[in-house]
Protein backbone atom coordinates (compact mmCIF):
# COMPACT_ATOMS: atom_id res chain seq x y z
CA UNK A 1 0.00 0.00 0.00
CA UNK A 2 3.11 2.15 -0.16
CA UNK A 3 1.97 3.21 -3.62
CA UNK A 4 -1.06 4.90 -2.14
CA UNK A 5 0.87 6.93 0.41
CA UNK A 6 1.91 9.95 -1.70
CA UNK A 7 -1.67 10.43 -2.88
CA UNK A 8 -2.90 10.10 0.70
CA UNK A 9 -0.35 12.77 1.61
CA UNK A 10 -1.84 15.14 -0.95
CA UNK A 11 -5.32 14.49 0.40
CA UNK A 12 -4.07 15.12 3.94
CA UNK A 13 -2.81 18.52 2.79
CA UNK A 14 -6.28 19.27 1.47
CA UNK A 15 -7.81 18.06 4.74
CA UNK A 16 -5.45 20.32 6.73
CA UNK A 17 -6.42 23.31 4.60
CA UNK A 18 -10.11 22.60 5.12
CA UNK A 19 -9.52 22.11 8.84
CA UNK A 20 -7.83 25.53 8.98
CA UNK A 21 -10.89 26.96 7.28
CA UNK A 22 -13.26 25.38 9.79
CA UNK A 23 -11.06 26.60 12.65
CA UNK A 24 -11.18 30.19 11.34
CA UNK A 25 -14.96 30.06 11.09
CA UNK A 26 -15.16 29.99 14.90
CA UNK A 27 -12.40 32.54 15.60
CA UNK A 28 -13.06 36.19 16.29
CA UNK A 29 -12.44 38.68 13.49
CA UNK A 30 -10.27 41.66 14.42
CA UNK A 31 -11.01 44.44 11.90
CA UNK A 32 -7.94 45.74 10.10
CA UNK A 33 -5.89 42.69 10.98
CA UNK A 34 -5.33 39.20 9.66
CA UNK A 35 -4.85 38.01 13.23
CA UNK A 36 -7.76 36.39 14.95
CA UNK A 37 -9.14 36.59 18.47
CA UNK A 38 -10.63 33.91 20.67
CA UNK A 39 -13.43 31.47 20.03
CA UNK A 40 -16.75 32.94 18.99
CA UNK A 41 -19.97 31.93 17.27
CA UNK A 42 -20.42 35.41 15.84
CA UNK A 43 -19.29 34.45 12.31
CA UNK A 44 -21.73 31.59 12.09
CA UNK A 45 -24.49 33.77 13.60
CA UNK A 46 -23.81 36.36 10.88
CA UNK A 47 -24.53 33.75 8.23
CA UNK A 48 -28.05 33.51 9.64
CA UNK A 49 -28.88 37.23 9.50
CA UNK A 50 -31.60 38.17 6.96
CA UNK A 51 -29.18 39.88 4.54
CA UNK A 52 -26.93 36.85 4.27
CA UNK A 53 -29.76 34.33 4.45
CA UNK A 54 -31.09 35.96 1.29
CA UNK A 55 -27.86 35.12 -0.54
CA UNK A 56 -28.13 31.53 0.63
CA UNK A 57 -31.74 31.37 -0.49
CA UNK A 58 -30.81 32.85 -3.89
CA UNK A 59 -28.06 30.27 -4.18
CA UNK A 60 -30.43 27.40 -3.43
CA UNK A 61 -33.01 28.74 -5.89
CA UNK A 62 -30.50 29.34 -8.70
CA UNK A 63 -28.91 25.93 -8.11
CA UNK A 64 -32.27 24.14 -8.24
CA UNK A 65 -33.35 25.96 -11.41
CA UNK A 66 -29.98 25.34 -13.01
CA UNK A 67 -30.19 21.62 -12.22
CA UNK A 68 -33.65 21.20 -13.75
CA UNK A 69 -32.90 23.25 -16.88
CA UNK A 70 -29.52 21.55 -17.36
CA UNK A 71 -31.13 18.13 -17.10
CA UNK A 72 -33.78 18.94 -19.70
CA UNK A 73 -31.26 20.54 -22.07
CA UNK A 74 -28.64 17.81 -21.68
CA UNK A 75 -30.69 14.63 -22.06
CA UNK A 76 -31.28 14.92 -25.82
CA UNK A 77 -27.60 15.63 -26.49
CA UNK A 78 -26.50 12.80 -24.21
CA UNK A 79 -28.94 10.44 -25.91
CA UNK A 80 -27.58 11.38 -29.34
CA UNK A 81 -24.04 11.02 -28.03
CA UNK A 82 -24.68 7.54 -26.66
CA UNK A 83 -26.93 6.26 -29.40
CA UNK A 84 -26.10 7.92 -32.71
CA UNK A 85 -25.34 5.28 -35.34
CA UNK A 86 -22.69 7.41 -37.01
CA UNK A 87 -19.30 7.33 -35.35
CA UNK A 88 -18.53 10.75 -36.84
CA UNK A 89 -21.61 12.32 -35.28
CA UNK A 90 -20.68 10.81 -31.92
CA UNK A 91 -17.15 12.08 -32.24
CA UNK A 92 -18.32 15.56 -33.25
CA UNK A 93 -20.80 15.74 -30.37
CA UNK A 94 -18.13 14.58 -27.96
CA UNK A 95 -15.63 17.20 -29.06
CA UNK A 96 -18.29 19.96 -29.01
CA UNK A 97 -19.35 18.85 -25.53
CA UNK A 98 -15.85 18.55 -24.16
CA UNK A 99 -14.38 21.72 -25.60
CA UNK A 100 -16.46 23.99 -23.34
CA UNK A 101 -15.87 21.55 -20.47
CA UNK A 102 -12.16 22.17 -20.82
CA UNK A 103 -12.32 25.83 -21.77
CA UNK A 104 -11.67 27.67 -18.56
CA UNK A 105 -14.36 29.30 -16.49
CA UNK A 106 -13.08 32.80 -17.18
CA UNK A 107 -13.07 32.40 -20.95
CA UNK A 108 -16.55 30.89 -20.95
CA UNK A 109 -17.98 33.49 -18.62
CA UNK A 110 -16.40 36.35 -20.53
CA UNK A 111 -17.92 34.89 -23.70
CA UNK A 112 -21.36 35.03 -22.10
CA UNK A 113 -20.80 38.64 -21.11
CA UNK A 114 -20.37 39.37 -24.81
CA UNK A 115 -23.42 37.29 -25.81
CA UNK A 116 -25.71 38.72 -23.11
CA UNK A 117 -24.61 42.31 -23.61
CA UNK A 118 -26.56 43.95 -26.37
CA UNK A 119 -23.81 44.20 -28.97
CA UNK A 120 -24.30 41.00 -30.93
CA UNK A 121 -27.86 40.09 -30.19
CA UNK A 122 -30.53 42.58 -29.19
CA UNK A 123 -32.33 40.93 -26.31
CA UNK A 124 -35.92 41.98 -25.63
CA UNK A 125 -35.23 41.97 -21.89
CA UNK A 126 -32.12 42.90 -19.96
CA UNK A 127 -30.10 39.75 -19.26
CA UNK A 128 -26.60 40.82 -18.30
CA UNK A 129 -26.23 41.58 -14.57
CA UNK A 130 -29.65 40.00 -13.95
CA UNK A 131 -30.55 36.63 -12.37
CA UNK A 132 -31.78 35.36 -15.77
CA UNK A 133 -28.37 35.98 -17.34
CA UNK A 134 -26.61 34.24 -14.45
CA UNK A 135 -28.99 31.30 -14.86
CA UNK A 136 -28.19 31.00 -18.58
CA UNK A 137 -24.49 31.05 -17.83
CA UNK A 138 -24.85 28.44 -15.07
CA UNK A 139 -26.84 26.08 -17.30
CA UNK A 140 -24.25 26.45 -20.05
CA UNK A 141 -21.52 25.78 -17.54
CA UNK A 142 -23.20 22.62 -16.22
CA UNK A 143 -24.27 21.06 -19.50
CA UNK A 144 -21.00 19.30 -20.45
CA UNK A 145 -20.78 17.57 -17.06
CA UNK A 146 -24.42 16.53 -17.15
CA UNK A 147 -24.13 15.31 -20.75
CA UNK A 148 -21.10 13.15 -19.96
CA UNK A 149 -22.74 11.57 -16.90
CA UNK A 150 -26.03 10.98 -18.74
CA UNK A 151 -24.31 9.60 -21.85
CA UNK A 152 -22.38 7.13 -19.71
CA UNK A 153 -25.63 6.02 -18.05
CA UNK A 154 -27.58 5.77 -21.32
CA UNK A 155 -24.80 3.78 -22.99
CA UNK A 156 -25.01 1.28 -20.12
CA UNK A 157 -28.70 0.60 -20.71
CA UNK A 158 -28.90 -2.93 -22.07
CA UNK A 159 -30.49 -2.70 -25.49
CA UNK A 160 -32.01 -6.19 -25.17
CA UNK A 161 -34.69 -4.67 -22.93
CA UNK A 162 -35.51 -2.07 -25.56
CA UNK A 163 -35.67 -4.71 -28.27
CA UNK A 164 -37.89 -6.85 -26.08
CA UNK A 165 -40.27 -3.94 -25.51
CA UNK A 166 -40.30 -3.14 -29.22
CA UNK A 167 -40.91 -6.75 -30.20
CA UNK A 168 -43.88 -6.78 -27.85
CA UNK A 169 -45.37 -3.94 -29.86
CA UNK A 170 -44.22 -0.77 -28.04
CA UNK A 171 -43.65 2.19 -30.32
CA UNK A 172 -40.20 3.89 -30.14
CA UNK A 173 -41.61 6.74 -28.05
CA UNK A 174 -43.13 4.33 -25.56
CA UNK A 175 -39.92 2.27 -25.46
CA UNK A 176 -38.05 5.45 -24.56
CA UNK A 177 -40.43 6.59 -21.81
CA UNK A 178 -41.06 3.17 -20.31
CA UNK A 179 -37.67 1.45 -20.72
CA UNK A 180 -34.72 3.68 -21.67
CA UNK A 181 -35.49 6.65 -19.44
CA UNK A 182 -36.25 4.64 -16.29
CA UNK A 183 -33.10 2.55 -16.80
CA UNK A 184 -30.97 5.68 -17.16
CA UNK A 185 -32.30 7.10 -13.87
CA UNK A 186 -29.06 6.44 -11.95
CA UNK A 187 -27.36 8.86 -14.37
CA UNK A 188 -30.15 11.40 -13.97
CA UNK A 189 -29.84 11.21 -10.20
CA UNK A 190 -26.06 11.45 -9.96
CA UNK A 191 -25.87 14.07 -12.73
CA UNK A 192 -28.42 16.24 -10.95
CA UNK A 193 -26.65 15.97 -7.61
CA UNK A 194 -23.26 16.77 -9.11
CA UNK A 195 -24.64 19.77 -10.99
CA UNK A 196 -26.53 21.02 -7.94
CA UNK A 197 -23.44 20.68 -5.76
CA UNK A 198 -21.26 22.43 -8.33
CA UNK A 199 -23.70 25.25 -8.94
CA UNK A 200 -24.14 25.71 -5.21
CA UNK A 201 -20.55 26.88 -5.00
CA UNK A 202 -20.36 28.53 -8.44
CA UNK A 203 -18.16 31.59 -8.44
CA UNK A 204 -17.05 33.10 -11.77
CA UNK A 205 -20.46 32.94 -13.43
CA UNK A 206 -22.40 34.93 -10.81
CA UNK A 207 -19.36 37.16 -10.21
CA UNK A 208 -19.06 38.35 -13.81
CA UNK A 209 -22.59 37.83 -15.18
CA UNK A 210 -24.21 39.05 -11.97
CA UNK A 211 -22.12 42.22 -11.94
CA UNK A 212 -22.35 42.54 -8.15
CA UNK A 213 -26.16 42.59 -8.30
CA UNK A 214 -26.62 38.84 -8.21
CA UNK A 215 -24.60 37.16 -5.49
CA UNK A 216 -24.28 33.52 -4.56
CA UNK A 217 -22.52 32.05 -1.52
CA UNK A 218 -19.12 31.84 -3.22
CA UNK A 219 -19.29 35.53 -4.14
CA UNK A 220 -19.94 36.45 -0.52
CA UNK A 221 -16.98 34.26 0.51
CA UNK A 222 -14.75 36.12 -1.94
CA UNK A 223 -16.05 39.59 -0.96
CA UNK A 224 -15.43 38.91 2.72
CA UNK A 225 -12.04 37.23 2.26
CA UNK A 226 -10.37 39.23 -0.50
CA UNK A 227 -12.07 42.64 -0.27
CA UNK A 228 -12.93 43.02 3.43
CA UNK A 229 -10.06 40.79 4.69
CA UNK A 230 -12.55 39.25 7.09
CA UNK A 231 -11.22 35.72 6.84
CA UNK A 232 -13.20 34.33 9.81
CA UNK A 233 -16.49 35.68 8.44
CA UNK A 234 -15.63 34.35 5.01
CA UNK A 235 -14.66 30.99 6.47
CA UNK A 236 -18.07 30.68 8.11
CA UNK A 237 -19.76 31.09 4.73
CA UNK A 238 -17.37 28.69 3.03
CA UNK A 239 -18.10 26.20 5.82
CA UNK A 240 -21.81 26.36 4.95
CA UNK A 241 -21.04 25.62 1.30
CA UNK A 242 -18.71 22.84 2.39
CA UNK A 243 -21.32 21.26 4.65
CA UNK A 244 -23.94 21.24 1.89
CA UNK A 245 -21.44 19.77 -0.56
CA UNK A 246 -20.43 16.96 1.79
CA UNK A 247 -24.05 16.16 2.43
CA UNK A 248 -24.68 15.89 -1.32
CA UNK A 249 -21.44 13.96 -1.83
CA UNK A 250 -22.54 11.41 0.76
CA UNK A 251 -25.84 10.99 -1.07
CA UNK A 252 -24.09 10.60 -4.45
CA UNK A 253 -21.62 8.06 -3.07
CA UNK A 254 -24.41 5.99 -1.55
CA UNK A 255 -26.38 6.14 -4.80
CA UNK A 256 -23.29 5.09 -6.77
CA UNK A 257 -22.48 2.22 -4.44
CA UNK A 258 -26.08 1.02 -4.77
CA UNK A 259 -26.03 1.07 -8.57
CA UNK A 260 -22.56 -0.48 -8.77
CA UNK A 261 -20.98 2.69 -10.06
CA UNK A 262 -22.54 2.24 -13.49
CA UNK A 263 -23.37 5.91 -13.77
CA UNK A 264 -20.04 7.26 -12.59
CA UNK B 1 -36.08 14.59 -37.41
CA UNK B 2 -37.45 16.82 -34.64
CA UNK B 3 -34.95 15.13 -32.39
CA UNK B 4 -32.11 16.18 -34.65
CA UNK B 5 -33.31 19.78 -34.72
CA UNK B 6 -33.50 19.86 -30.92
CA UNK B 7 -30.02 18.37 -30.54
CA UNK B 8 -28.75 20.84 -33.15
CA UNK B 9 -30.25 23.80 -31.29
CA UNK B 10 -28.84 22.64 -27.97
CA UNK B 11 -25.38 22.12 -29.42
CA UNK B 12 -25.78 25.56 -31.01
CA UNK B 13 -26.51 27.01 -27.56
CA UNK B 14 -23.35 25.36 -26.25
CA UNK B 15 -21.21 26.70 -29.09
CA UNK B 16 -22.73 30.19 -29.36
CA UNK B 17 -20.40 31.91 -26.85
CA UNK B 18 -17.34 30.47 -28.57
CA UNK B 19 -18.45 31.81 -31.93
CA UNK B 20 -19.19 35.25 -30.51
CA UNK B 21 -15.78 35.44 -28.80
CA UNK B 22 -13.97 34.51 -32.00
CA UNK B 23 -15.87 37.15 -33.99
CA UNK B 24 -15.27 39.77 -31.31
CA UNK B 25 -11.53 39.07 -31.24
CA UNK B 26 -11.17 40.40 -34.81
CA UNK B 27 -13.15 43.56 -34.09
CA UNK B 28 -11.16 46.58 -35.30
CA UNK B 29 -12.38 49.04 -32.64
CA UNK B 30 -12.17 49.07 -28.86
CA UNK B 31 -15.94 49.26 -28.65
CA UNK B 32 -17.53 46.09 -29.96
CA UNK B 33 -19.84 46.35 -32.95
CA UNK B 34 -21.77 43.77 -34.89
CA UNK B 35 -21.43 43.31 -37.80
CA UNK B 36 -17.80 44.42 -37.34
CA UNK B 37 -16.53 47.29 -39.48
CA UNK B 38 -13.56 45.23 -40.61
CA UNK B 39 -10.99 42.76 -39.47
CA UNK B 40 -8.04 43.48 -37.24
CA UNK B 41 -5.35 41.57 -35.41
CA UNK B 42 -4.48 44.44 -33.09
CA UNK B 43 -6.12 42.82 -30.03
CA UNK B 44 -4.02 39.72 -30.55
CA UNK B 45 -0.96 41.90 -30.56
CA UNK B 46 -2.23 43.65 -27.45
CA UNK B 47 -2.96 40.35 -25.69
CA UNK B 48 0.46 38.95 -26.49
CA UNK B 49 2.39 42.06 -25.43
CA UNK B 50 0.41 43.13 -22.33
CA UNK B 51 3.05 42.85 -19.56
CA UNK B 52 0.77 41.43 -16.88
CA UNK B 53 -0.41 38.68 -19.27
CA UNK B 54 3.20 37.83 -20.09
CA UNK B 55 4.16 37.60 -16.45
CA UNK B 56 1.03 35.52 -15.76
CA UNK B 57 1.84 33.22 -18.69
CA UNK B 58 5.27 32.51 -17.21
CA UNK B 59 3.61 31.78 -13.85
CA UNK B 60 1.14 29.48 -15.59
CA UNK B 61 3.98 27.49 -17.15
CA UNK B 62 5.73 27.16 -13.77
CA UNK B 63 2.61 26.21 -11.81
CA UNK B 64 1.15 23.86 -14.43
CA UNK B 65 4.49 22.22 -15.17
CA UNK B 66 5.33 21.64 -11.52
CA UNK B 67 1.89 20.39 -10.51
CA UNK B 68 1.70 18.04 -13.50
CA UNK B 69 5.17 16.66 -12.69
CA UNK B 70 4.05 16.06 -9.11
CA UNK B 71 0.57 14.74 -9.81
CA UNK B 72 1.55 12.32 -12.59
CA UNK B 73 3.76 9.93 -10.56
CA UNK B 74 1.67 10.33 -7.39
CA UNK B 75 -1.57 9.67 -9.27
CA UNK B 76 -0.13 6.79 -11.29
CA UNK B 77 1.05 5.04 -8.14
CA UNK B 78 -2.33 5.53 -6.51
CA UNK B 79 -4.21 4.32 -9.59
CA UNK B 80 -2.09 1.14 -9.77
CA UNK B 81 -2.63 0.53 -6.06
CA UNK B 82 -6.38 1.02 -6.34
CA UNK B 83 -6.75 -1.22 -9.40
CA UNK B 84 -4.29 -3.97 -8.39
CA UNK B 85 -4.95 -4.40 -4.72
CA UNK B 86 -8.66 -4.16 -4.07
CA UNK B 87 -8.95 -2.60 -0.66
CA UNK B 88 -11.86 -2.82 1.61
CA UNK B 89 -14.11 0.19 1.13
CA UNK B 90 -12.75 0.83 -2.37
CA UNK B 91 -15.76 2.99 -3.20
CA UNK B 92 -14.89 5.19 -0.25
CA UNK B 93 -11.26 5.52 -1.36
CA UNK B 94 -12.35 6.51 -4.85
CA UNK B 95 -14.76 9.04 -3.36
CA UNK B 96 -11.96 10.52 -1.25
CA UNK B 97 -9.61 10.83 -4.20
CA UNK B 98 -12.28 12.32 -6.44
CA UNK B 99 -13.48 14.74 -3.73
CA UNK B 100 -11.40 17.74 -4.93
CA UNK B 101 -13.67 17.73 -7.98
CA UNK B 102 -16.70 18.53 -5.91
CA UNK B 103 -15.43 20.45 -2.87
CA UNK B 104 -16.23 24.15 -3.40
CA UNK B 105 -13.31 26.00 -4.97
CA UNK B 106 -13.76 28.94 -2.60
CA UNK B 107 -13.40 26.61 0.39
CA UNK B 108 -10.21 25.03 -0.97
CA UNK B 109 -8.92 28.47 -1.94
CA UNK B 110 -9.62 30.11 1.41
CA UNK B 111 -8.23 27.09 3.26
CA UNK B 112 -4.95 27.24 1.36
CA UNK B 113 -4.86 31.04 1.80
CA UNK B 114 -5.12 30.66 5.57
CA UNK B 115 -2.41 27.96 5.54
CA UNK B 116 -0.17 30.10 3.33
CA UNK B 117 -0.51 33.06 5.69
CA UNK B 118 0.29 30.85 8.67
CA UNK B 119 3.51 29.62 7.05
CA UNK B 120 4.48 33.00 5.59
CA UNK B 121 4.16 31.73 2.01
CA UNK B 122 1.66 34.28 0.71
CA UNK B 123 3.65 35.37 -2.36
CA UNK B 124 5.12 31.95 -3.05
CA UNK B 125 4.52 29.71 -6.03
CA UNK B 126 4.62 26.68 -3.72
CA UNK B 127 1.08 27.38 -2.48
CA UNK B 128 -0.30 27.57 -6.02
CA UNK B 129 1.60 24.43 -7.01
CA UNK B 130 0.35 22.37 -4.08
CA UNK B 131 -3.23 23.57 -4.58
CA UNK B 132 -3.06 22.70 -8.29
CA UNK B 133 -1.60 19.27 -7.48
CA UNK B 134 -4.64 18.58 -5.27
CA UNK B 135 -6.98 19.72 -8.04
CA UNK B 136 -5.47 17.74 -10.94
CA UNK B 137 -4.84 14.53 -8.98
CA UNK B 138 -8.38 13.16 -9.47
CA UNK B 139 -8.03 13.49 -13.25
CA UNK B 140 -4.68 11.69 -13.23
CA UNK B 141 -5.90 8.84 -11.01
CA UNK B 142 -9.04 8.41 -13.09
CA UNK B 143 -7.24 8.33 -16.45
CA UNK B 144 -4.46 5.97 -15.36
CA UNK B 145 -6.93 3.70 -13.53
CA UNK B 146 -8.82 3.09 -16.80
CA UNK B 147 -5.60 2.00 -18.52
CA UNK B 148 -4.46 -0.03 -15.53
CA UNK B 149 -7.76 -1.91 -15.39
CA UNK B 150 -7.29 -2.96 -19.02
CA UNK B 151 -3.73 -4.12 -18.43
CA UNK B 152 -3.35 -7.90 -18.53
CA UNK B 153 -1.24 -8.99 -15.49
CA UNK B 154 -0.26 -12.13 -17.47
CA UNK B 155 2.07 -9.97 -19.57
CA UNK B 156 3.95 -8.83 -16.49
CA UNK B 157 4.09 -12.37 -15.15
CA UNK B 158 5.43 -13.56 -18.48
CA UNK B 159 8.22 -10.99 -18.38
CA UNK B 160 9.04 -11.90 -14.78
CA UNK B 161 9.11 -15.62 -15.56
CA UNK B 162 11.58 -14.90 -18.35
CA UNK B 163 13.90 -13.44 -15.75
CA UNK B 164 13.14 -9.70 -15.74
CA UNK B 165 13.52 -8.05 -12.36
CA UNK B 166 10.54 -6.08 -10.97
CA UNK B 167 12.07 -2.71 -11.94
CA UNK B 168 12.64 -3.90 -15.47
CA UNK B 169 9.14 -5.39 -15.74
CA UNK B 170 7.74 -2.04 -14.68
CA UNK B 171 9.83 -0.05 -17.15
CA UNK B 172 9.57 -2.40 -20.13
CA UNK B 173 6.08 -3.84 -19.74
CA UNK B 174 3.86 -1.92 -17.30
CA UNK B 175 4.73 1.65 -18.26
CA UNK B 176 4.48 1.15 -22.05
CA UNK B 177 1.09 -0.53 -21.61
CA UNK B 178 -0.11 2.36 -19.45
CA UNK B 179 0.95 4.90 -22.04
CA UNK B 180 -2.54 5.90 -23.29
CA UNK B 181 -3.71 6.48 -19.74
CA UNK B 182 -0.57 8.41 -18.85
CA UNK B 183 -0.93 10.58 -21.91
CA UNK B 184 -4.57 11.32 -21.13
CA UNK B 185 -3.63 12.02 -17.52
CA UNK B 186 -0.96 14.50 -18.54
CA UNK B 187 -3.34 16.20 -20.95
CA UNK B 188 -6.14 16.48 -18.38
CA UNK B 189 -3.71 17.71 -15.76
CA UNK B 190 -2.38 20.43 -18.04
CA UNK B 191 -5.82 21.52 -19.25
CA UNK B 192 -7.31 21.62 -15.76
CA UNK B 193 -4.35 23.46 -14.26
CA UNK B 194 -3.98 25.99 -17.07
CA UNK B 195 -7.67 26.90 -16.75
CA UNK B 196 -7.98 26.76 -12.96
CA UNK B 197 -9.34 30.01 -11.62
CA UNK B 198 -11.24 30.06 -8.33
CA UNK B 199 -8.64 28.48 -6.06
CA UNK B 200 -5.84 30.37 -7.82
CA UNK B 201 -7.62 33.69 -7.24
CA UNK B 202 -7.46 33.12 -3.49
CA UNK B 203 -3.84 31.99 -3.24
CA UNK B 204 -2.09 34.25 -5.72
CA UNK B 205 -0.76 37.77 -5.61
CA UNK B 206 -0.17 40.16 -8.49
CA UNK B 207 3.34 38.66 -8.72
CA UNK B 208 2.45 34.97 -8.70
CA UNK B 209 -0.95 35.07 -10.41
CA UNK B 210 -1.57 32.71 -13.34
CA UNK B 211 -3.30 33.61 -16.61
CA UNK B 212 -6.95 33.00 -15.68
CA UNK B 213 -6.58 35.29 -12.66
CA UNK B 214 -4.91 37.99 -14.76
CA UNK B 215 -7.70 37.59 -17.30
CA UNK B 216 -10.34 37.99 -14.59
CA UNK B 217 -8.73 41.21 -13.41
CA UNK B 218 -8.59 42.45 -16.99
CA UNK B 219 -12.27 41.71 -17.64
CA UNK B 220 -13.29 43.51 -14.47
CA UNK B 221 -11.29 46.62 -15.42
CA UNK B 222 -11.31 46.90 -19.21
CA UNK B 223 -13.90 46.24 -21.89
CA UNK B 224 -11.79 46.20 -25.06
CA UNK B 225 -11.56 42.97 -27.11
CA UNK B 226 -8.07 42.03 -25.85
CA UNK B 227 -9.74 39.39 -23.69
CA UNK B 228 -11.60 38.08 -26.74
CA UNK B 229 -8.30 37.61 -28.57
CA UNK B 230 -6.68 35.82 -25.63
CA UNK B 231 -9.84 33.72 -25.16
CA UNK B 232 -9.76 32.71 -28.81
CA UNK B 233 -6.19 31.51 -28.40
CA UNK B 234 -7.24 29.52 -25.30
CA UNK B 235 -10.24 28.03 -27.11
CA UNK B 236 -8.13 27.13 -30.14
CA UNK B 237 -5.55 25.37 -28.00
CA UNK B 238 -8.27 23.49 -26.09
CA UNK B 239 -10.00 22.36 -29.28
CA UNK B 240 -6.75 21.04 -30.70
CA UNK B 241 -5.97 19.23 -27.44
CA UNK B 242 -9.43 17.64 -27.19
CA UNK B 243 -9.46 16.73 -30.87
CA UNK B 244 -6.02 15.11 -30.71
CA UNK B 245 -6.97 13.14 -27.61
CA UNK B 246 -10.11 11.83 -29.26
CA UNK B 247 -8.14 10.97 -32.39
CA UNK B 248 -5.34 9.08 -30.73
CA UNK B 249 -6.91 7.74 -27.56
CA UNK B 250 -10.64 7.70 -28.12
CA UNK B 251 -12.33 9.87 -25.52
CA UNK B 252 -15.31 7.50 -25.25
CA UNK B 253 -13.15 4.89 -23.55
CA UNK B 254 -11.67 7.36 -21.08
CA UNK B 255 -15.11 8.73 -20.24
CA UNK B 256 -16.83 5.34 -19.98
CA UNK B 257 -19.26 6.00 -22.80
CA UNK B 258 -19.39 2.52 -24.22
CA UNK B 259 -21.04 0.94 -27.15
CA UNK B 260 -23.27 -1.93 -26.11
CA UNK B 261 -24.48 -2.97 -29.49
Write the layout of secondary structure elements.
The complex is a heterodimer of chains A (about 260) and B (about 260).
Chain A: H1 5-25, E1 27-29, E2 36-39, H2 42-47, H3 50-83, H4 87-102, H5 105-116, H6 131-155, H7 159-167, H8 172-183, H9 185-200, H10 204-209, H11 217-227, H12 231-258
Antiparallel strand pairs in A: 1-2
Helix pairs in contact in A: 1-12, 3-4, 3-6, 3-9, 4-6, 6-9, 7-8, 9-12, 11-12
Chain B: H1 2-25, H2 42-49, H3 51-84, H4 90-98, H5 105-118, H6 125-149, H7 153-161, H8 166-195, H9 198-203, H10 211-221, H11 226-249, H12 251-254
Helix pairs in contact in B: 1-11, 2-11, 3-6, 3-8, 3-10, 6-8, 7-8, 8-11
Summed up, what is this model?
Chain A has 264 residues and is mainly alpha-helical. Chain A has helices at 5-25, 42-47, 50-83, 87-102, 105-116, 131-155, 159-167, 172-183, 185-200, 204-209, 217-227, 231-258, and strands at 27-29, 36-39. The model of chain A has no long low-confidence stretch (mean pLDDT 88).
Could you tell me which chain pair has the largest interface and how many residues each side has? A-B, 91 and 90 residues
Strand content of chain B: under 5%
- Write the CATH architecture name of the domain at 50-224 in chain B: Orthogonal Bundle
Question: What do we call the CATH topology of chain A?
Answer: MetI-like fold
Q: Tell me the Rg of chain A in angstroms.
A: 22 Å
- Structural category of chain A: mainly alpha
Mean pLDDT of chain B: 87
Q: Helices and strands of chain A, in N-to-C order?
A: HEEHHHHHHHHHHH
> Would you tell me the structural class of the helices and strands of chain B?
mainly alpha
Detail the poorly predicted runs of chain A.
none
Order of helices and strands of chain B: HHHHHHHHHHHH
**The CATH homology group name of chain A:** MetI-like
Strand content of chain A: under 5%
**CA-atom Rg of chain B in angstroms:** 22 Å
Number of helices of chain B: 12
Oligomer: heterodimer
Overall shape of chain A: globular
Amino acid sequence: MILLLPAVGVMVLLAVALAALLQFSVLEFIPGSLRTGGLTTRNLDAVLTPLYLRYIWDTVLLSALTTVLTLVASYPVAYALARSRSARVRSLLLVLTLAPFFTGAIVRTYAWMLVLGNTFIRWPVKLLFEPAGVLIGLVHFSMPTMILILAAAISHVDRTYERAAASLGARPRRVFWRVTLPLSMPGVASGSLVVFAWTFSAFPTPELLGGGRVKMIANVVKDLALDAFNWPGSAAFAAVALAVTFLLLAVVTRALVRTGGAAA
Amino acid sequence: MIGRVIVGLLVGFMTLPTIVVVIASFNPTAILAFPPAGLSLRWYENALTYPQFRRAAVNSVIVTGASALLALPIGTAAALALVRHPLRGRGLWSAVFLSPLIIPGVAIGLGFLILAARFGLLANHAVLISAHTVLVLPFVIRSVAVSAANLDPQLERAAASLGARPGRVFRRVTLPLLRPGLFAALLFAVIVSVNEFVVSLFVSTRVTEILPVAMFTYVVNYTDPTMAALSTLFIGATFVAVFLTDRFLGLSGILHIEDHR
